Every structure is written in structure tokens, then in C-alpha cells.
Amino acid sequence: MASAREVRGDDHGAGAVEGARPDSSTMTSPTPSPTTPAEALSTTSRAELERLFVGLQNEARDLFAPRHVPRVASLDALCFQRDWVARNRPVVITEGQRHFQRALDEWSLEGLRRKAGDAEITVAATPNGLADAPVGTEHFCLPEERRMRFGDLLDTPAPGPGDDILYAQYQNSSLTAEFAHLLGDVDADLDWVSAALGLPGPDAINFWCGGDESVTSLHRDPFENIYCVVRGSKTFRLFPPTDVACLYFRPWTLARHRRDAVTGRWDIEPLSPPQTVDWSPVDPLLPRTQLLARFPRLGHAAGPISVTVTEGEMLYLPSGWYHHVTQRAAVGPSRDHGRWTVAINYFYDCDFGARYCWQNFGRGVADLLAGGPAHPGTP
């Protein structure tokens, strides 16, 4: 079985795949060969594929995708595996606080500053709050990464027009790598999750601290994800894996936000050598009429399914589910964390089995419908 760590790289980009093409001297027909697989589709074939995908969406809504995300008080390993992992369905656990109770008690603004204020951390800086997201019609922009004291981040005032938007969102197990002084405040493992998945523990534990301005664009993760909110709230807009044909994935040129140290101007710098990444341009925050005008197939999608996770709650986000995330510091009982929403998440390796293969097959057919190149890249 391939692990998430082995496969994860494909989720961040896909290069061109070269294949043999027939030499013109061997062609027996003067009709030119189509330049892409999509051009080989007849009108009848395309209409039939569209009909099949509409049927898939209808069945997914009726048999698989929930209209809302259920909430349960707690789970044991058997129930978690049987009812949620095996069925690939999300769920909110409302009474999982025992795994991060000390964080709930002590991660006020002052508590975080006292415990980890001197830690040198990686911060994502952007002009628009969109780190790792499509910008315009051509580029997918990575954030400018800066090293700074965590205390300095916490002291940063709310940004005004033209100010940098900062977000502690480094994901390479950032809690263990950069916030060692906070490790004792949360469980190193969620025992019922590890037991259900047959794993020794999580692959990574990440720490998140950002303002309302920071938004996570629509994507999926090749992990089983347990997301725990400590301060504020997070709103997830979910699309099940069956919605892949409705999300209009396409290649984007990889670039990075850069702020000129002299002029203060933000620029977009393409990476060198050139690289591409497949990503969805769908922004669930746009008015639905505008979305459907640009992406008509979205009208058949089961998503977005919206769920808000507040302080002390945990969201199980199954592998392969597409999600877009916003946050609000003012939602929740605490008023001691300033303008920051604070969370952690546990990434567990997932089983790359038949489900993963079918998802990629669906993505390839979606490429044909979109008129783009069909390829085995991972959305």
C-alpha cells in the first residue's frame, strides 16, 4: 500500500507527460490526428459523458453526500472506522476536548505569548490573504515565507489597505517543528483514530494562527484529517470526491508573492525553472449566480456543504474531500485571543486503494469534458 507521504507530492503539481505520436508518413488517411484526447470526442460521446456525470452527481446526493455534516458527542475506534472512515464521510466531534484541554485553558493571547512568544516560526505573507491559491487567470501563487518571532506575529495589528496579511500556516508538522513549547498542551496522538486506522500515530501535527483576512483556497489533502479549533471558529465548505468533474481543475503556472524591500510593492514571480500545478478556480464565496455563469457544471455538485467548527470541537475531514476554509476570531465563547483564530490538526496516512484510483479516473474524464488534456495527475 502506498502511503500518503509517498503520494502527496502529486497533489501539488503535475508536469506534462510526453507520449509517442504517429509519424505522418505512416498515416493512411489525410485526416489530421487530433492534438488532444478531448478533440477526439464526438458530439455524441461528449453528450453521453455529460449524461453519465449528471447521473453520478444525482446518485452521490441521494446515496453518499450528506446535506449537512452530522455532529456527535464522541467516538470510539470501532464507530469511527465503521461509520465515518469506511464510508468516507465527515463528522464533527463536539466533546473531544480531552485531547487538547490544556490548550483550551491556556492558549489565550497572553498565554501563547508567554509559552512560545520567543519561538522563531515560519509565517506566510501575502497582499490578499490567499496563500497557495490561483491569482488572476494564469498564476497559482505561493506566499512569501518569512521567519519571525511568534510574539511579534501576535502583536501585529489588524491589517489595513495595502498592509501585509500574515498567517502561521506552515504545514510540515509545524507544532512539533516550531512550537515545541506548546507540545505538552495537546495529545501527541488521538488513540481512537490510530486504533481505527491501524497506525502508530499521526504523520504530522500542524499549528494554525491567523486573522479573519486569511482564506484557504479549495483543495484536497491526501490524509485523514482531524481538525481541532482552540480559539475562534473555522468554516469549511466541502465538496465530496464525486464532485471532481464540477470543480474545473486545470493547470496553473506556479509563482510566488514577493514584496520589494525598497518600493514596498507586491509582485508575482513565476518559479524558475517553470512549473505547473493543477488547481480548481472555484471560489465558494462568490455569488452562486456568478459561479454558475462561469462554471455551469457546478450546478450538479453535491457541495458546497458548509460546516462551522468552534472552540473545543473537532472535524473529521476524510481524505479526498475538497475543502475551502475561512475563519472568524469573534465566533466562540472566549474573548482572550485578540484577532486571532487558533487551531491544530492531525494528519494521518490514508489508504490509497481503489477509491483513490476511481477518483483519479473521474478526474481524467472530467478533463475530457472540459476540453483540456486528459492525464493521470492528481487533483
Describe the model.
The protein is of the alpha+beta class. Helices cover 23% and strands 27% of the residues. It has a nine-stranded mixed β-sheet with strand order 1-2-16-10-18-8-7-3-6. Strands 4, 5, 12, 13 and 14 form a five-stranded mixed β-sheet that branches. Strands 9-17-11-15 form a four-stranded antiparallel β-sheet, with no helix packed on it. The longest helix has 21 residues.
Question: What is the structure about, briefly put?
Answer:
With 379 residues, this protein is α+β, with helices and mostly antiparallel strands. The chain contains 10 helices and 18 strands. Strand 1 (71-72), helix 3 and strand 2 (91-93) form a beta-alpha-beta unit.
The portion of residues assigned to helices is: 10-25%
> Radius of gyration, rounded?
22 Å
Q: Calculate the mean pLDDT score and round it.
A: 87
**Helix-strand topology string:** HHEHEHHEEEEHEHHEEEEEEEHEEEEH
> The biggest beta sheet, please?
9 strands, mixed
* Number of helical regions: 10
- Strand arrangement across the biggest beta sheet: 1-2-16-10-18-8-7-3-6
Indicate the structural class: alpha+beta
Categorize the overall geometry: globular
Proportion of beta-strand residues: 25-35%
For the secondary structure, the number of strands is 18
Show unreliable segments: 1-35, 373-379
Distance between the ends: 20 Å
